[in-house]
Amino acid sequence: MTPASTTAPTRGYTATKDQLQTRLRRVEGQVRGIQNMVDEDRYCIDVLTQISAIQAALDKVALGLLDDHVRHCVKEATAEGRSDEMTTEMMSAIGRLMRRG
C-alpha cells in the first residue's frame, strides 16, 4: 500500500487564501452583528441593510473564487483536453450563485 498524501491539492485560490480567509472572517463578524441587532430589537430596515451588505461581500468572495477557478483550474483542464467538462461545471456553479430568493 502507498501512504496517503499529506499535502493538500493546489486550488485556484491557494495564492490568495489568506486574503479569502480575512474576507470570510469579516463576513462572519457582520453576521454576528446582525444577530446582536435582532437581539436589541433594532429597526427592520437597518437589519435588512446589513443583510444586503453581507450578500454583497459574499458575492465579491464568490467572484474572486470564480476568477481564480478560471485562471487556474479551467486553464489546467483546457491543457489536459477537459475544457468542456470544466466549462459545464463552472456554468452550473454560476447558475447556482445567481439563483436567490
UniProtKB/TrEMBL annotation:
Any Pfam family: Trns_repr_metal
InterPro entries, sorted: Metal_Tscrpt_repr, Metal_Tscrpt_repr_sf
Source organism, top-level taxon: Bacteria
Protein keywords: Copper
Family: Belongs to the CsoR family.
Name of the protein in its database record: Metal-sensitive transcriptional regulator
Species of origin: Actinoallomurus oryzae
